[in-house]
Specification:
The chain is α/β, with parallel strands linked by helices. It has a single domain (4-285), classed as Glycosidases (TIM Barrel, Alpha-Beta Barrel), CATH 3.20.20.80. The chain has helices at residues 18-28, 56-71, 91-105, 126-138, 158-163, 170-177, 198-208, 223-226, 257-273, 279-291, 293-301, 303-309, 315-327, 332-341, 349-354, and strands at 4-9, 33-38, 75-80, 111-115, 145-149, 183-186, 213-216, 248-252. Strand 4 (111-115), helix 4 and strand 5 (145-149) form a beta-alpha-beta unit. The longest helix has 17 residues, at 257-273.
């Protein structure tokens, strides 16, 4: 069973260009990617400065992209992260939120994400506070499907260390209090889950009182450590059998939009082929479809360096050889590799703290 597949542009660092977004939709829609959630952490008007309205020019860009999605039969959505709104959901906050919702709804949203991720959450009454906000938004979101990312969106204890200990029964309370039509996101047993199992998803379904909407953190490569690596390999650890246990499967793509299409295509193939799926063969087919035979072969031959060794450990000699190899190709994916070698997407801790 193939679930609803889609793209979540939800990473830290440099966001995509509008042209890159449209090209990704065009490339992946034929393989079953049916939604795109625009939610880059670097868009301050969706996160830390969410109270500030979008300019007319920014709204026009969003509107144009929404139309590009619809031309390919892809649902268009925006992920709003009203930073720390649950600390003081007063009349002024409601007025600002209402104004922002009016702008977003005017785009004709198919999906509206309400994301409480990556902000402090150690409040005993966190769930009821967030439920009140979501209910308020639901009454003003028009026909858009609501997709909520909880503050604690994984079992991974790293969230408790960084954002404070999660309240007791937080997920159960959230699932019990939210309307059954509202989707709840989940990244798995870890922030960047190595695999998803039917048993794990069944347990989360019980907590949520609904099937989880997967926010899959592969092939994303943001952050000071992951930005040193290109995530190009085919999907593994996502057996087709999980399709019956999830509401949808969204992938948080890498900072390199063209290269991201390679693993994205393999996920669709994994669901399509089921137990017949072979990840190396899937990689080769996807790489050739995105890159053409010659560039696909060049990337496969250097996969250990690009994905495993990583930029910071290449050394000048190997970096020079890679630059020479990929400079020979006139292809946007080759240019992405060259820009990565030059440090174009490297971000620091301060980016995580300010975006």
């Amino acid at each position: 069973m193939t679930p609803e597949l889609g793209i979540i542009e939800g990473f830290f660092g440099r966001p995509y260009t509008w042209e890159a977004r449209a090209a990704m939709v065009e490339a992946l829609a034929p393989s079953g990617y049916g939604f795109y959630l625009y939610a880059p952490k670097a868009d301050p008007h969706l996160r830390r400065r969410w109270r500030e309205p979008y300019s007319d020019a920014a709204l026009a860009n969003l509107s144009d992209f929404a139309q590009a999605c619809r031309r390919h039969g892809v649902r268009f959505g925006v992920g709003l992260s009203p930073y720390e709104l649950f600390l003081d959901f007063n009349s002024a906050s409601k007025a600002a939120l209402g104004a922002k919702l009016d702008q977003l709804v005017s785009l004709g949203l198919d999906d509206l994400g309400v994301f409480f991720d990556d902000m402090k959450g150690d409040l005993a009454d966190l769930a009821p506070r967030q439920i009140a906000i979501i209910d308020w938004i639901a009454a003003r979101a028009g026909s858009a499907r609501l997709i909520v990312c909880p503050s604690y969106y994984t079992d991974d204890p790293v969230l408790d260390r960084v954002f404070g200990a999660r309240p007791a029964n937080y997920l159960e309370d959230l699932g019990k209090g939210l309307d059954a039509a509202i989707q709840l996101m989940w990244t798995g047993e870890e922030v960047c889950a190595k695999e998803f199992s039917p048993g794990h998803l069944a347990r989360v379904t019980e907590q949520f009182r609904r099937k989880p909407f997967l926010w899959d953190n592969y092939p994303v490569n943001d952050g000071p450590r992951m930005a040193q690596h290109l995530h190009l390999r085919a999907f593994t650890g996502r057996p087709a059998s999980i399709g019956a246990h999830i509401a949808a499967h969204g992938i948080n793509t890498a900072s390199q939009p063209v290269l991201s299409c390679i693993p994205a295509l393999t996920l669709a193939e994994s669901y399509r082929l089921g137990q017949a799926y072979e990840y190396l063969a899937a990689f080769r087919r996807a790489a050739q479809a995105v890159l053409g035979p010659a560039l696909a072969d060049a990337i496969e031959r250097t996969l250990l360096l690009l994905e495993d060794t990583g930029r910071e450990r290449l050394g000048e000699e190997r970096m020079g050889r890679l630059r020479e190899r990929f400079s020979a190709f006139d292809h946007p994916a080759a240019r992405e590799i060259l820009a990565w070698l030059d440090g174009h997407w490297i971000i620091g801790t301060e980016d995580l703290e300010t975006q």
